[in-house]
Automatic annotation (TrEMBL):
GO cellular component, one term: high-affinity iron permease complex
Family under the similarity heading: Belongs to the oxidase-dependent Fe transporter (OFeT) (TC 9.A.10.1) family.
Membrane topology reported for the UniProt record: Multi-pass membrane protein
Cellular compartments annotated: Membrane
Species the sequence originates in: Catenuloplanes indicus
Protein's UniProt name: High-affinity iron transporter
GO molecular function: ferrous iron transmembrane transporter activity
Amino acid sequence: MTAIYLIGLREGLEITLVVSILVAFLVKSGRTHLLRLVWAGVAAAAALAVGFAALLQAGVARLASGDKELFEAIASLTAVVFVTWMIFWMRRMARRIAGELRGRLEEAIRVGPFAVVAVAFLSVVREGLETAILFYAAAQGTASTVQPLIGISLGLLTAVALGWLLYTSAMRINLTRFFTWTGALLVLVAAGIAKYGVHDLQEAGVLPGLDTYAFDISGVLPPDSWYAELLRGMVNLTPTPTVLETAAWLAYGIPVLVLFLRPHRTPAPVTAS
């Protein structure tokens, strides 16, 4: 549930910040009559994301055993691609996103009401669909169907509360540092999801080595202990992982984390000679 809470918090705060930028632009420019169009676009994007998550869950439940493992593997690996792209995109665009959103909304206002709704919808729907896919992939390893819903709900509610406090200037946080730390944690979560994907491919018979274990630490990490559950839920550390699962975790987690935490390089100014 911890990993799913982090996904809800991170994705939810990105959505909240996007919406607050659009709302603040309209309020400060005296166009509050257009707020209903923005909220209509946001509501449509949220409905599509929730509907997509429900269809995903319902469709997978009808699959046969082997097909289900294969689909879950594809979903896990797709989620890894999404989360990797998302954290690097946000790191690169964080300082420019507000200006770009205001520019798009200004152009949409000149076009007409439908364009305003479309800007709000498109600004939110990508994050919503990403959240649905990440939620599904991260929830695969949980035995309970309630805990993942609690985790994502708490994460999204926390994000909305933080976004409201930031919008009203009741609280100030260093968003660059926040997204850096949560991005680093999400890399570890994504490494665990990649491990899920490899395990599902092994269960589906696509990859070999389902019974070839890299190590066995069940003596020091009892599967029924609270700390084993925390590590499994957060980074998918299990007592007896296979060799391929371990290799996938390390092959993704270490290089991506190093690249993500690498300091930004500011290009040198060009001077006329």
